[in-house]
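The records we work with from here on pair a chain with its fold. A complete example follows; check for yourself that the lines match position by position.
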Amino acid sequence: MNRNDATKQFHSGGDRIAELIDETQPVELPAPDTDVPMVSRSVRLPLDTYERVRAAAEARGIGVTTLMRQWIEAGLAELDDSATVSLADVRRALAALSRPTAA
């Protein structure tokens, strides 16, 4: 059955749609990646900003929303003076400390 036929069946109130649904195989949904209840929010970003976030997430091997959530959590931690810092930032700070200063 194509989409137009299915739409007509649905709007006519026929039982054919129910029969089609009953004939389908059960689908297993992916398990959530967390036990913490999540809230979905929409955020508008300029395209170039989104592309930079997407590239950063891809480089880390994680999803865009996961990276955004990490950044938000880090920003909130900073507000609470319980900031988390990235390993890269720690390495840069340590490297800067080990360099001799110019006289």
The chain is about 60% helix and 0% strand. The helical segments are 3-12, 16-23, 47-60, 64-79, 87-98. The mean pLDDT is 81.
